What we know:
Blueprint: E1 7-8, E2 14-16, E3 20-24, E4 27-34, E5 37-52, E6 55-70, E7 77-82, E8 94-105, E9 110-118, E10 120-126, E11 132-139, E12 145-148, E13 155-162, E14 176-185, E15 191-199, E16 206-208, E17 211-222, E18 225-231, E19 240-241, H1 245-248, E20 258-260
Parallel strand pairs: 1-3, 8-13, 14-17
Antiparallel strand pairs: 2-7, 3-4, 4-5, 5-6, 7-10, 8-15, 9-14, 10-11, 12-13, 16-17, 16-19, 17-18, 18-20
Amino acid sequence: MALRIDRILINMFDIYHPPFNLEIEDTFITVEIQDDNLIYRRFFREEEKQEDNLIVNSLFKEKELAEILVLNNESDILINPIEPVNIPKTLTSFLLIEFTCPVMIGPGDRKKIYLTFPVEIGVFVKNKEDEYEIIDMFTFSRVKFTLYGSHTQGLICKHWESDVFTKAPETDILREGYIELDIINDSSTTMEIKQTVFNAYGMKIYYGDDRLTMKASLRIINKLLAETDFSTYPTTSRFKRSMELYTSRKLTLSRTKGIMEFGL
């Protein structure tokens, strides 16, 4: 495929006006106008090395991952981070972050730490009602699931392992964002925390100024029970709230908090 690339990007999160072609790392996104419609394609380029008389030649194969016909040629395309629980398919709304080292917090204390989380990317098309609808999802991050709790009553969770930071870490925002986590120990004993579970229905993702972040709290009730929740950041023209996938689906949310009842 002969492809003219309009932009080679480090950060692809933006609104785009068709037609356009983007390259980020080895992933390509093209949107073409054909008659009264849009054709969206995403593919990646694989490098194959062949030896010929001790000379190594690099060949590139293009593998198409998605092709979608959008029946509206006036649509803008929004690409931004979404809740990191949707790929390869929606098995759960819960994200479990396992700490690489445990955290201790005293009774009645309130402390702040930072954790990383995996990034998933959503591609949305704007309809005539000025509403965004998802047409594609992909990720550059590792995908893994785990079970939190017992085999009979536990929760399937997207799994992520994170170092624990005392200040906001620098991250590759195509693969990792960070969570500013406020820990409140309402119990009467010192608590050890090795993991935390978040509910994607409450996630509020923000991006801009080379950062991708969420703000959350972990309230400890006792050694077997805690709850997590998300809060908002002030936004600016350069620091925006993402179009979350669950928000775009207009779901009625009965519970947005994460309840940790199988231990910390």
